[in-house]
Design goal:
single chain; 278 residues; alpha/beta; Rossmann fold; 2 domains; 45% helix; globular; binds D-glutamic acid
Length: 278
């Protein structure tokens, strides 16, 4: 017997604030939909945590979205996409036996397109330690662009700098220069740099100071937004379950005052959030 499915908001998840850079582009591209954003600020950063822990935290968050009535959840976090998405899709979701529950990530849509930006066939990836160690980008890009060589650089200090609102400070220059140099030392041919962490667009102006003007810097917001649009077109049955009330709600696992203040930097306008427990 078929049960009638209620429509729900699209869930957008990140370990903290970073996913807001993605949500911003998603809302710009798909403004009529309803969204619930959750930042697991109480347990951020994820980038230095084990596979098991990132999977456990991310699956808890996905289940929370499902309890809130969401059918579609976007992991707007590279670390969660790299370390948890596959297990969620292959192990957790099948147990639910609900074909209307879907979870998407940010790595595959980026890998599908990133090779189109390079002329030299050398791409640099800046990401968290977790994303780099997972080699997810190397493996995914290879599937779509086998002739592209991927050079990776972990930037473990970027997320703490941004989460502590120090990304515009003089002190941040030291780490931006250090990580950029370590990446560019790997090859003289890198002409495209992917910001493979949703926090990093906040450092884009500083990053531009340490690369030559011909090098392209790619953020994921637009890529993920266009890929979601395409997904909804290709899956009308899921699209029909996504509420279109033109509404965005914000949730955090930590203190709402801190979230409201800091999230403004990412979102560009005042935010009022609700605290939840996972
Ligand atoms: N924003 C997350 C990403 O895209 C990382 C932040 C963290 O380390 O928790 O990878």
């Amino acid at each position: 017997m078929n049960t009638v499915q209620q429509q729900g908001a699209i869930g957008v998840f990140d370990s903290g604030y970073g996913g807001l850079t993605i949500l911003k582009d998603i809302v710009k591209t798909l403004p009529t939909y309803s969204y619930k954003y959750l930042g697991d600020n109480a347990r951020t950063p994820y980038g230095t945590r084990s596979f098991e822990t990132v999977h456990q935290y991310t699956w808890q968050a996905v289940q929370w979205f499902f309890q809130q009535g969401c059918h579609l959840v976007v992991l707007a976090c590279n670390t969660a996409s790299a370390k948890a998405l596959r297990t969620i899709q292959q192990t957790n979701l099948p147990v639910l036996q609900d074909k209307h529950k879907r979870v998407l990530g940010v790595i595959r849509p980026t890998a599908e397109i990133i090779g189109n930006y390079t002329q030299t066939n050398h791409i640099g990836i800046l990401g968290t330690t977790g994303t780099v160690q997972s080699s997810s980008y190397v493996l995914e890009i290879e599937k779509f662009f086998p002739s592209v060589k991927v050079h990776q650089q972990a930037c473990p200090l970027f997320v703490p700098l941004i989460e502590n609102n120090e990304h515009n400070s003089q002190g941040a220059n030291f780490f931006v220069e250090k990580y950029l140099q370590e990446l560019l030392n790997q090859s003289n041919n890198i002409d495209t740099i992917l910001l493979a962490c949703t926090h990093y667009p906040l450092l884009i102006n500083k990053i531009k100071n340490y690369i030559n003007g011909n090098t392209k810097i790619i953020s994921q917001g637009e890529i993920v937004a266009n890929s979601l649009k395409d997904y909804l077109l290709r899956h009308p049955e899921i699209n029909a379950l996504c509420k279109q009330e033109n509404k965005v709600e914000f949730f955090t696992t930590d203190n709402t005052t801190a979230f409201n203040n800091q999230a403004t930097t990412f979102w560009g306008q005042a935010i009022s959030s609700i605290q939840i427990e996972l």
